[in-house]
Amino acid sequence: MKNNRKEEFLEIVNDILENETVQDLKNYKHHYGFTRLEHSMSVAYYSYLICKILHLDYKSIARAGLLHDLFFYDCESDDTRIEHHIWIHPKIVLNNAEKLFELNKKERDIILKHMWPITLVPPKYIESFIITLVDKYCALKEWSYYSAWKMLIWYRLLEKRTGFFQ
């Protein structure tokens, strides 16, 4: 059953994943050492699973989840970050996504509202609300992996130098 879901998910997003512009997301660091493509894949897949289980629109959320951070600048660098990135990037993303793919109303709302409540206007669809939660969950998960690795390296270094944890 698990492999069937993964296969179905990949079938739904295949045209997006094969797009060269979308593939460029792997060249951008996003959260704590993860690429923007890795982050977007996680958000898309977890959202797809939730909507599949709840009998919601799993196709729209999978596609919009993969596109929800389709922007091409380093949002953590003062040199390239767009001012007020956190508030305006959903509109930038929607513009980028509409240049590449035909989106339905729900996919547009999911992309525009994925930063809610920061974006103030609430989601119109339950799928849009789900993506906001999953996006935050994935960012937290990515941060915790990164933090755990940093802590492990720090402990090993401390242990090597002092024998403290032996």
Characterize the structure shown.
The protein has a single domain (2-136), classed as Hypothetical protein af1432, CATH 1.10.3210. It has helices spanning 2-17, 20-23, 36-53, 58-67, 85-100, 105-113, 126-162. It is built from seven helices and no strands. The N and C termini lie far apart (44 Å). The model has no long low-confidence stretch (mean pLDDT 82). Helices cover 66% and strands 0% of the residues. It is globular.
Short description:
By secondary structure, this protein is an all-alpha fold. The chain is 66% helix and 0% strand. The chain has one domain: Orthogonal Bundle (Hypothetical protein af1432), CATH 1.10.3210.10.
Keywords:
single chain, 166 residues, mainly alpha, Hypothetical protein af1432, 66% helix, globular
CATH class identity = Mainly Alpha
- Provide a count of the helices: 7
| Low confidence ranges | none
CATH superfamily descriptor: Hypothetical protein af1432
At CATH level 2, the architecture is Orthogonal Bundle
Shape: globular
Compute the number of strand runs. 0
Distance, first to last CA: 44 Å
| CATH fold-level assignment | Hypothetical protein af1432
- Tally of structural domains: 1
Oligomeric state: single chain
Percent range for β-strand residues? under 5%
Radius of gyration, taken over Cα atoms and rounded to an integer in Å: 18 Å
Average pLDDT figure: 82
What structural class do you assign from the helix and strand content? mainly alpha
**Biggest sheet details:** none
- Tell me roughly what share of residues is in helical segments: 55-70%
Q: Topology as H/E string?
A: HHHHHHH
